[in-house]
Specification:
By secondary structure, the chain is an all-alpha fold. The protein is built from 18 helices and two strands. Helix 3 packs across helix 15. It is globular and about 60 Å long.
Length: 428
């Protein structure tokens, strides 16, 4: 993904069979990775006594923090799979927060949710007009949308929330009046049973109970909707002819056009859906996280969503794992502070040691030595301290994201025509 666009590549023999087959790890490998990670966390919990690592409250908080990032990443995935880089996700999320807060307090949170999505779609269409129709550089257009969305919402907030009925209800130039809750879902019986098992602190069993308990206790309806959107996006993009045509626009639009695909139409659809998903992520922040629109409440989540999408290799499953990892680390430092984050140092030691062994096995000696030295340094930090200083605690999710991105960078494969300029008629 680069800021400089080039013309779309010339027609090439399309490989529909290859494009229809999803690349990446199999389900069995993914389950093995998840199982290994869970076992490792359980061991660290027992050794350190940091029971909050897999508690119900920790998982519940992680879900709430991961959902807007995941929706932003899913928005970027739809856009970039069609060949349009969407740096404007942050701005579309800002539009979603304002739309949800503006309509939500005046009518119902459900209408606010729809308005947030609609405002995001509007931002997506502006981006599509600039990049697809007029060929504006994708990065320039995205940055412009971020700046315009921020300025427009600041102006509109002063216009609609600073006086009259809105001010009497608790609004001011930087926030809307409170919005009613959308409601949560708890599975009766199962939630209490899992909580009881978690409290015994049994090895692995209580860890699984805590994780499952966080997924069935006080879960927002928007979180459930987000899960369905991930499954639906995977099915549409990799199991339907519509998805195949859309992805072909991101791989080689000239070849797609030569086969009769209306590339402009698919790019517009993808970017509009992208904007709607980003707007939904913003609406989640306004209606679920804080129950009000607040200036600056997106906090860069649109950019973090892009990082999660890259970590996931432009695929829904990997994207969900990346967003979950950020949400988990963010919830850990917000809920428990330096003592529990200190336990993560031991987990990091194990991962770095494993990486060192793998690099040595692959004959990448220098990388193996560097990983081993880092593992020794982190181990010394863990043994010589009792908690992580507060100055470092707040940076935990960002450090985790950077580490994961750096470790996974060698396996990334972006759509071939992502960010490239396309002109209608090139394939004729």
């Amino acid at each position: 993904m680069t800021a400089t666009m080039t013309d779309a590549p010339p027609p090439a023999a399309p490989k529909a069979d290859d494009a229809a087959q999803p690349s990446g790890r199999s389900l069995a490998k993914i389950l093995m990775i998840v199982g290994g990670a869970l076992l490792l966390v359980a061991v660290v919990r027992v050794i350190t006594g940091a029971n909050q690592l897999t508690s119900e409250g920790q998982v519940s908080a992680a879900l709430g923090l991961a959902v807007p990032i995941a929706l932003a990443g899913l928005a970027g995935l739809w856009s970039e799979r069609a060949g349009v880089v969407n740096i404007g996700l942050e701005g579309m999320m800002i539009l979603g927060t304002f739309g949800a807060g503006w309509i939500g307090w005046q009518s119902s949170p459900w209408l606010g949710l729809l308005c947030g999505i609609g405002f995001g779609v509007l931002g997506g269409l502006v981006h599509a007009v600039a990049t697809v129709t007029f060929g504006v550089d994708h990065i320039v257009s995205g940055v412009a949308i971020n700046l315009l969305a921020l300025g427009a919402t600041q102006y509109l907030a002063k216009l609609f929330f600073a006086g009259g009925t809105a001010a009497e209800a608790g609004g001011n130039p930087k926030q809307s009046p409170p919005v009613n809750s959308l409601g949560d879902v708890t599975v009766p019986g199962l939630s209490d049973a899992l909580h009881s098992v978690e409290q015994h602190h049994w090895f692995l069993i209580s860890d699984i109970a805590g994780i499952l308990g966080g997924m069935v206790t006080d879960v927002s309806v928007v979180t459930i909707l987000a899960v369905l959107l991930f499954v639906g996006s995977w099915w549409v993009l990799w199991r339907t002819s519509f998805g195949l045509r859309l992805r072909s626009c991101g791989e080689n639009p000239v070849a797609a056009e030569s086969l009769g695909v209306n590339v402009y139409q698919y790019k517009y659809a993808a970017v509009a859906i992208s904007g709607g998903l980003a707007g939904l992520g913003g609406a989640f922040l306004a209606l679920v996280t804080s129950h009000t629109y607040l200036e600056g409440q997106t906090g860069g989540r649109g950019y973090i969503g892009l990082a999660a999408m890259i970590f996931g290799n432009w695929r829904p499953g990997g994207l969900a794992m990346g967003a979950g990892l950020f949400g988990y680390s963010d919830a850990l430092q917000l809920r428990n502070g330096g003592v529990t984050v200190h336990a993560l140092l031991l987990l990091l030691v194990v991962l770095l040691a494993a990486l060192a062994g793998w690099k040595v096995y692959r004959k990448a000696l220098w990388q193996g030595v560097i990983s081993a030295v880092m593992a020794a340094a982190v181990l010394a930090w863990y043994l010589l301290t009792d908690e992580v200083p507060s100055d470092f605690v707040g940076a935990t999710p960002y450090v985790v994201t950077l580490l994961v991105l750096s470790l996974s960078a060698q396996r990334l494969r972006m759509p071939k025509a992502d960010g490239m300029r396309y002109r209608k008629g090139q394939g004729k």
